[in-house]
């Protein structure tokens, strides 16, 4: 009978160490993991510690900052600065980039949303952390320019979903997508999912979007969602309102997540550097498609976009090939080259 204890726990650190000779990267992922463990503690004790409610400030997105937004942001910034391997940080919660003091400066540049979906936090709905990692350009001491590059230059990306379980999903550029569940008995993220992939047959027919915006969508998006509702094999609607939860379900079960550009938000709502690019890398490397839908006159791949500023927005159409193709077919009916 196998023991309940694993004498050979496959932790995140060990996984990263097995995938790279760059020990600074191992240090970085450890710092990210520590900050997400701290965020886990804060999120799970929010009610007891009276951390619900507003902090009284507004973030770069114009959202009212929650107390947990501010706390989670401080946890990530401090962990990354003191890792000694970062030189510039970009957070959704900070209008300006954070320049790491020279004494702690290193080669990585990290963009993150420390607590994505935090409008859900006071009612205990799942929230998440999303991050993308770049390396300084040769000769750079770390500046915003190191981050204002397309997803082709992103070296790794990940998210953490704080839900019934806490799970970190991570991938290196060009690599497989792996899942690590937080084992609270040892305080470590333990490798639980090898090579996460969309279901080969497209999986469950689930569409995920905020239909409250439907009147503002362009016709192809409206027609695609109408198709999802009326197809011979009808789809189910699932929308948590936390991108991390919706994307995590989409990869594991199948389906499509849409936050398109629309008449009132020509660039969509989500942020390219710390939502679009990291999620697009994960989605593509899990066998899906990460598109902008119609954006600036053409259908684009999210990873091909270059942010012109650290809080640049991008439309998002992400999901399995079967379901994204439904959107593409509608654009094609309107004469759009896909
Ligand atoms: P809406 C949360 O604010 C977020 O950035 C994503 O996590 C989520 O998918 C989306 O915005 C929800 O936006 O407009 O539907 O509330």
UniProtKB/TrEMBL annotation:
Transmembrane segment boundaries: none
Catalytic activity: beta-D-fructose 1,6-bisphosphate + H2O = beta-D-fructose 6-phosphate + phosphate
InterPro entries for this protein: FBPase_C_dom, FBPase_class-1, FBPase_N, FBPtase, Fructose_bisphosphatase_AS
GO cellular component, one term: cytosol
Record GO biological process: fructose 1,6-bisphosphate metabolic process; fructose 6-phosphate metabolic process; fructose metabolic process; gluconeogenesis; sucrose biosynthetic process
This protein's pathway: Carbohydrate biosynthesis
Annotated localization: Cytoplasm
Keyword Endoplasmic reticulum in record: no
All residue ranges annotated as the Fructose-1-6-bisphosphatase class 1 C-terminal domain in the record: 204-328
Annotated GO MF terms: fructose 1,6-bisphosphate 1-phosphatase activity; metal ion binding
Keyword Magnesium appears in the UniProt entry: yes
Broad enzyme group: hydrolase
Residue ranges of domain Fructose-1-6-bisphosphatase class I N-terminal in the record: 11-194
Cofactor(s) this protein requires: Mg(2+)
Major location category of this protein: cytoplasm
Keyword annotations from UniProtKB, A to Z: Carbohydrate metabolism, Cytoplasm, Hydrolase, Magnesium, Metal-binding
CDD domains referenced in this protein's UniProt entry, alphabetically: FBPase
SUPFAM superfamilies, sorted: Carbohydrate phosphatase
Enzyme Commission number(s) from the entry: 3.1.3.11
Annotated HAMAP family: FBPase_class1
Family per similarity comment: Belongs to the FBPase class 1 family.
PANTHER family: FRUCTOSE-1,6-BISPHOSPHATASE, CYTOSOLIC, FRUCTOSE-1,6-BISPHOSPHATASE-RELATED
Protein name: Fructose-1,6-bisphosphatase, cytosolic
The species this protein was found in: Fistulifera solaris (Oleaginous diatom)
